[in-house]
Design a protein that fits this description.
By secondary structure, the protein is an all-beta fold. 0% of the residues lie in helices and 16% in strands. Bound molecules: zinc ion. The site of zinc ion has 8 residues, from loops.
């Protein structure tokens, strides 16, 4: 999973982000560069990998 450094949102690839057009089972690495944190709207650069 990847965690937003700003708000703590966790991106779960098993769930994707269906509210924003990301299907379940989408790895973080395959998210479009235009994807933003659903909570605080920062870009992917603000996410860190967590176990
Ligand atoms: Zn965030």
């Amino acid at each position: 999973m990847h965690r937003c450094l700003i708000c703590g949102y966790l991106y779960n690839p098993d769930e994707g982000d269906t509210a924003h057009g990301v299907d379940p089972n989408t790895p973080f690495e395959e998210l479009p560069d235009s994807w933003l944190c659903p909570v605080c709207s920062v870009t992917k650069e603000y996410f860190e990998k967590v176990a």
